[in-house]
Amino acid sequence: MRSIIVCVISLIVFPLFTGCAIISHYGEYYGRVVDGETKEPLEGAAVVAVYKTQKPSPGGPVSFYLDAQETVTDKNGEFKIPSLTVTTFRVLHGFDAHPQFTIFKPEYGAYPKHKDVKPMFVPNGTLPKDKYVTIELPKLKTREERLRNYGCYPSSDVPEVKYKNLFHLIQEERKALGLESRKEPW
Amino acid sequence: MKQGLLRNIIIVCFVFLLPLAAFPYDNDIVHPEINEVASRRSSNLATVLQMLGFDKGVDSIVYDKEIYLWFRDGGKREDEPVCRTKFHFHDPVKPFGDAGLNDIVVDLGCMNFNHYSSLAWAQNDDNLASWQKARLNYLGALTGTDKDVREGKLADTFKALGQVMHLVSDSSVPAHVRNDAHVLVADQFEAWAAANHGKLSYTGIPVNQSIFNQAVNDALAPVPISALWDIDKYKGNNPEETVGTNIGIAEYTNANFFSDDTISREYSYPNWTSVSNQIEDSGIIDPRDPTRTVTRQYFKKDKHGDAGYRLSTVPFLVEYFTDLNQLETLRIPAILDGEVFTDYASKLIPRAVGYSAGLLDYFFRGKIEMSPSEDGSGYVIENKTEEDMDGTFELYYDATDNQRKQCWSGSFALGALSSGNNKSDTIAFTPPDDAKEPGKYILVFLGRLGKEDGAVVGAIVNLPSSSFVLLSFA
């Protein structure tokens, strides 16, 4: 009888501390963004980090938006995404250890969407934490290439207000390509 | 007593700790990307968007968002809530009613004991993003009174179609067509694709459009889009029939590829007689030292359907066995690694793109026109599709008060384009006097188109104003 009671209590208590996403700490991500051909620094590129939790499902794990941070590169092409501690309470979720990054500047291939971006870290779209990286974005030569590349929005559950700079740069690129700009949704 | 207690606690901890394992990003990246590329490849979608006034195609904005983003959104949302994914399986070797995932653990976890296969789920009444719901949304997008409501319905159409495209794409994943659930440990092919999405080729393999004529007549999936999954051509013992694009994507995947837990077992094909006697050596990155490469051996598939790719790794002890079937008997594992998945993806992702584009082409296939009759006494409606039409035709216009209003409707049948019987009798109606753009109308068909009941077709028609005078007195 005592064993059963302990088991029932365990069933209630353990999820609170194990199978739930509650608190996680993410390190700093920093580096430099350069032109893939000239190696010149690219100023004003948007760098967005999206943090996720994942939940198992019969068809495999499913990702859910948790938080996002954004910055832009300075005149040396350098950026820094500060460390982040997130607290949440999501039953049966696990934290995804790797934030998903998007790096974009108009007229350049976006990281990780464009195949010629170097280097491509594994899992693709991530960056190594606490390590200085140099990302080379290829300059795009044709309108077709730019049309196929500009749509590098983070996944649809990330609120646009979390990536205002990226949003504006994408609209700038749309305008340059003769497309109507989207209204700011915030 | 103490041992039993300890065991129970370990089990509880184990169950709840497992979700903390690292998982892939699939619903964030691969599915949305397949959907976007497919939406850019669909020629019928491009034609309809042009006709509706979206001259930038899927880069146009509908309801404050690019059209391709609505398709991407559908690709992501189909996995939410997560128990929807229990309906993302289709085993083509079984009858449609038994082809879904049947796993008691999954049933209990989701507290849902239905086993719809993805093919049936795509057309199921309980599915709020089914093909039929997409049709209703499209009808609302064409006929809704208010402009904002119409735009919202159009966005919902694209999103729902994106969700159905997700179901088609899932049938290019071996685990999803070989009844191989992967709840706590991610399917390795999907995990690999998510982690290496930059390597994937999204060039589509166009589906043979005649496939819709071969759809299985089944109440669970009355619309012929079921043919994209399964035309019941592959019976489990005839993999040669799965070569080419005149085959359901689930049939192709099931017959030609292994999933993690069905390597040469559970299904007849592929098996160890499907591979070449020549073992292929490939250089791979040394897992112990990424700066070096090492050689690994692979079985190359060379018969029983599609061929010319690495099917699995070769177990270390293979040279001691004359009969490869002993590998399974002796439980000597062959595994599927990144090199195998590279080859699998090169075959499966283009097919997922092509079949998803085929789904869109089928949705937007209907073409109708309206023009003055030869004698000038009215108008005729013409079916420009190679499928019969039988249903209701309605004519709408946008009024000066910005409301869309109906000005005529009629029910009749039209033969297919090549039948010679594809034109209606002369139609007369009184033109509205409050039209915002006189002469511009929206012609809508709702009814049976070929084998599809509840089909919706729309067209913007410009009717010469000179005819209005005649009609006004008619």
Draw up the topology in text.
The complex is a heterodimer of chains A (186) and B (474).
Chain A: H1 2-17, E1 20-26, E2 29-35, E3 46-55, E4 62-72, E5 78-81, E6 84-91, E7 94-95, E8 100-104, E9 132-137, H2 143-149, H3 164-176
Parallel strand pairs in A: 2-9
Antiparallel strand pairs in A: 1-6, 2-5, 3-4, 3-7, 3-8
Chain B: H1 2-17, H2 30-41, H3 43-51, E1 61-62, E2 65-66, H4 67-77, H5 104-110, H6 118-121, H7 131-143, H8 147-170, H9 174-177, H10 188-195, H11 249-256, E3 280-286, E4 289-301, E5 309-313, H12 325-329, H13 338-363, E6 368-372, E7 379-383, E8 389-398, E9 404-414, E10 440-449, E11 452-462, H14 466-473
Antiparallel strand pairs in B: 1-2, 3-4, 4-5, 6-7, 8-9, 8-10, 10-11
Helix pairs in contact in B: 2-4, 2-8, 2-13, 4-8, 7-8, 8-13
What does this entry look like structurally?
The complex is a heterodimer of chains A (186) and B (474). Chain A is an alpha+beta fold. Chain A has a single domain, classed as Carboxypeptidase-like, regulatory domain (Immunoglobulin-like, Sandwich). Chain A is 19% helix and 32% strand. Chain A contains three helices and nine strands. In chain A, strands 3, 4, 7 and 8 form a four-stranded antiparallel β-sheet that branches. Chain A starts with a helix and ends in a 10-residue tail after the last helix. Chain B has 474 residues and is an alpha+beta fold. At the A-B interface, α1, β3, β4 and β7 of A face α1, α2, β2, α4 and α5 of B.
Give the strand content of chain B.
15-25%
Identify low-pLDDT runs of chain A: none
Question: Which architecture of chain A per CATH?
Answer: Sandwich
Q: How far from one another are the termini of chain A?
A: 57 Å
Number of helices of chain A: 3
Q: What amount of the residues of chain A lies in strands?
A: 25-35%
Q: How many β-strands of chain B, per DSSP?
A: 11
Class based on secondary structure composition and strand pairing of chain B: alpha+beta
CATH level 3 topology of chain A: Immunoglobulin-like
The ordered string of helix (H) and strand (E) elements of chain A is HEEEEEEEEEHH
Mean of pLDDT of chain A: 91
**Which CATH C-level class of the largest domain in chain B is it?**
Mainly Alpha
User: What is the string of helix and strand elements of chain B?
Assistant: HHHEEHHHHHHHHEEEHHEEEEEEH
Total strands of chain A: the figure is 9
Q: Name the chain pair with the biggest interface and residue counts per chain.
A: A-B, 52 and 68 residues
CATH domain class name of chain A: Mainly Beta
